[in-house]
UniProtKB/TrEMBL annotation, chain A:
Species annotation: Haloactinopolyspora alba
Residues annotated as domain CstA N-terminal: 3-349, 368-515
Signal peptide: none
Entry GO CC: plasma membrane
Bilayer-crossing regions: 85-109, 130-155, 161-180, 187-204, 226-247, 259-278, 290-311, 331-354, 394-413, 434-455, 467-492, 499-517, 529-553
Topology of this chain in the membrane: Multi-pass membrane protein
Protein name as catalogued: Carbon starvation protein
Keyword tags: Cell membrane, Membrane, Transmembrane, Transmembrane helix
Any Gene Ontology biological process: cellular response to starvation
Family recorded in the similarity comment: Belongs to the peptide transporter carbon starvation (CstA) (TC 2.A.114) family.
Subcellular location per the Swiss-Prot or TrEMBL entry: Cell membrane
Domain of life the protein comes from: Bacteria
TrEMBL record, chain B:
Domain of life: Bacteria
Biased composition (Basic and acidic residues): 36-49
Region named Disordered: 31-57
Protein name: Uncharacterized protein
Length: 567, 149
């Protein structure tokens, strides 16, 4: 089937979801009121709270939530065939992510633009705030670990990407200094940054850097592990810099790259008219992870991402002019993320291989599919770029640079954020030394994910990337579950029908718990004494979340019944 | 060429932390309910380090809205929000009669922090503005409320 047909059908379904389902949510579930005085009008601090046009807010929201994660999950999940992966992306985006992102924004607007962590405390229970911080701690640990592994794998497979990636750091610092010190426009210097980066792709392709020898001399079994250590050393330093020095200009450069990559995928498909060579449903080898529940935690971002509730309830909700704008900003943001996942599926089913046999070799078993997923995406995008006349070797480095840049920026921010979370948890636990010592908190923020990324064991080949990714997906779904629980309680308290929220909530909690139990058994059988306790702790958090959500929902239904009796 | 249907004023805010992120797998500390300002002031990595001082842009936008006619659309835009900023300024500049090249240059200049754009024309650039100075920068054809005429 031509990839372009699938793209058009999916985008049409997204449009229908926006036109009809988001309207149902706005009118019947969240009960948006155009006359409601939003926090942007009610609260004024001259900094964050300002009523803003919905198109402006959408632009801000989308550039904040769009990233690399919706690429990885779908690139692994097509192992079960492109049909199930695409179905989960489409249904998840329309019926779960849209409900979640839109709902988080709506509930935050009704609570003075409070963040989902604070709302968990206010709407569910005081304990839920601690639960939220613990989930975020594990989530960030796994985010930083998986992206370090992604970068390590890509730099080993694409030595041509090393120079562009590492020269991007001083390039971004120079641009940041120029913009900040000169008070000049950000667009042109950052576009120069993108052009400079792409020139470096040519240099990198001519001068590939491989560190296999160095890794060997230093006693590393895998070259990837040395890259992982280099990346964490870099992020430890980067997390101590003010954001405007490195993070912001780098993020700015990346936001341009995102649109360029999306354009390349869509144009490449259109020009090349590539056929999807992967099977609709793949006949996977015996002993492979089962599609239920693993598919639904493999694709987290791209179907539903808990992180979106953080941005929606943190920054975006402070700017909404009208409550009804939440539909456009929140729901459309989810559709944008789903479109990125669609691009990833097309790259790894139509772009990466010319024949079914070639594709089968790339997805021969689950661990090959997991370890090769990001590389497959890179090669798929390279093929689309090649349709546009870019030489294949340069196109591959270009695609690798896009993914590594995003992953590295995610690590920059993730390690910084984890440092704050470590300090916050230490403060709650009364560990004053850790709470006040920035270096110590930074070391904790780096050491734990680095240990996960370097994890020994798993046989000669080491752990497959898929193992870490599944734990990450599970924790991301738990964050989404917590946000959906907050939304469901709020909807119930307002005497509205919460079914549209409860269905994705229950589905996610079942899939998450099921996956955690299944993985725990596997880890114990394989005597994996690092992963097993981690899985067990995340399972305890999931059970804790289920209990808190059930208690809060029961209370909300009881209060509603009592209020109904009185009237 | 687009036709202007009303007046639009855009205040491009300062270069500040907001959402310095790596996409969908990160957030700002405020997004998870942590206030970085509460962390020690010597923390070189805190998110407001290096930020702008001076009048808050939201306060300036509020005051501008109160000072101009209701038919004038006044918006505060983050300099990072190129998805909205660049096409909007380009369109407004074209509607004002600018050539495509000039409109593109204006759109690029509009991504400067603390820039005021009125109907596709950059009227102040890279200078933190308070309300009176922002109002003084606006072209005379922008309708004012009776109290500010």
């Amino acid at each position: 089937m031509p990839a372009i047909v699938v793209a058009v059908v999916v985008l049409a379904l997204f449009a229908l979801g926006y036109l009809y389902y988001s309207r149902y949510l706005a009118e019947r579930v969240y009960g948006l009121d155009p006359a409601f005085v939003t926090p942007a009008h009610e609260l004024s601090d001259g900094v964050d709270y300002v009523p803003t046009n919905k198109h402006v807010v959408f632009g801000h929201h989308f550039t904040s939530v769009a990233g690399a994660a919706p690429i990885v999950g779908p690139a692994i999940a097509v192992f079960w065939g492109w049909g199930p992966a695409l179905a989960w992306v489409v249904l998840g985006t329309i019926f779960a992510a849209g409900v979640h992102d839109f709902g988080a924004l709506a509930v935050s607007v009704r609570h003075k633009a409070r963040s989902i962590g604070t709302l968990a405390h206010d709407v569910i229970s005081r304990r839920a705030r601690t639960l939220f911080l613990l989930i975020i701690f594990f989530l960030l640990t796994l985010v930083n670990a998986v992206f370090a592994v992604v970068i390590g794998n890509l730099l080993v497979a694409n030595p041509g990407a090393v120079i562009p990636i590492f020269v991007e750091i001083p390039l971004a610092i120079a641009i940041g200094q120029y913009i900040y010190r000169k008070g000049t426009a950000a667009l042109v210097p950052s576009l120069f940054g993108v052009v400079g980066l792409y020139l470096l792709i040519w240099v990198g392709n001519e001068v590939p850097i491989e560190i296999d020898g160095l890794a060997d001399q230093l006693g590393f079994d895998r070259t990837r592990d040395l890259w992982v250590i280099i990346m964490f050393a870099y992020t430890f330093i980067a997390s101590r810099m003010p954001v405007w020095v490195l993070l912001q200009p780098r993020d700015y450069i990346n936001s341009h790259q995102l649109f360029i990559a999306l354009g390349v995928i869509l144009l490449g498909i259109l020009v090349g008219m590539d056929e999807i060579v992967a099977p609709v449903v793949n006949d996977v080898p015996e002993g492979s992870p089962s599609i239920f529940p693993i598919l639904f935690i493999t694709i987290a971002c791209g179907a539903i991402s808990g992180f979106h509730s953080l941005v929606a309830s943190g920054t975006t909700s402070k700017q909404l002019d009208k409550e009804t704008d939440a539909r456009y900003v929140g729901y459309m943001g989810a559709l944008g993320e789903g479109s990125l996942a669609l691009g990833s599926i097309l790259a790894v089913t139509a772009g990466v291989a010319a024949t079914r046999a070639d594709w089968d070799a790339l997805y021969v078993d689950h661990s090959t599919a997991s370890d090769g997923a990001v590389g497959n995406f890179v090669n798929g995008v390279a093929s689309f770029a090649n349709n546009l006349g870019v030489p294949l070797d340069l196109a591959a480095v270009f695609a690798a640079v896009v993914v590594v840049s995003f992953a590295a920026t995610t690590m920059d921010t993730g390690v910084r954020l984890q440092r704050y979370v470590v300090q916050e948890i230490a403060e709650l636990a009364g560990w004053r030394k850790l709470a006040r010592n920035l270096t110590l908190a930074g070391i904790v923020a780096v050491a734990i994910p680095m240990a996960m990324a370097l994890l020994p064991g798993g046989g000669d080949a080491g752990y497959t990337f898929g193992v870490l990714w599944r734990l990450f997906g599970t924790t991301n779904q738990l964050t989404a579950g917590l946000a959906l629980a907050v939304i469901a309680v709020w909807v119930t308290k307002r005497s509205r029908n919460p079914v549209a929220v409860l269905v994705p909530l229950v589905f996610l909690l079942i899939m998450t718990s099921w996956a955690l139990i299944q993985q725990l058994g596997e880890f114990i059988d394989a005597e994996e004494w690092v992963l097993a306790p981690m899985d067990a702790v995340i399972f305890v958090l999931a059970m804790w979340l289920i209990v808190e959500a059930a208690i809060a929902l029961r209370r909300a239904f009881t209060d509603r019944a009592v209020a109904g009796t009185r009237t | 060429m687009p036709v202007r249907t009303g007046h639009r004023i855009l205040l491009v805010g300062p270069w500040r932390a907001g959402t310095a992120g790596g996409g969908c797998c990160t957030a700002s500390p405020e997004d998870i309910g942590i206030v970085p300002h509460e962390h020690p002031p010597h923390d070189p990595g805190r998110d407001d380090a290096g930020g702008d001082d001076g009048p808050g842009p939201a306060a300036v936008v509020r005051a501008l809205r109160a000072s101009v006619g209701p038919e004038v659309d006044v918006q505060l835009v983050d300099p990072r929000n190129t998805v909205y900023l660049v096409p909007t300024v380009f369109r407004d500049a074209r509607a004002g009669g600018a050539s495509a090249a000039r409109a593109l240059a204006t759109a690029a200049r509009a991504t400067t922090p603390w820039t005021l754009v009125a109907d596709g024309v950059v009227v102040s650039r890279a200078v933190p503005l308070d309300h009176p100075s922002a109002l003084a920068c606006l072209p005379p054809d922008i309708p004012r409320t009776s109290t500010t005429r």
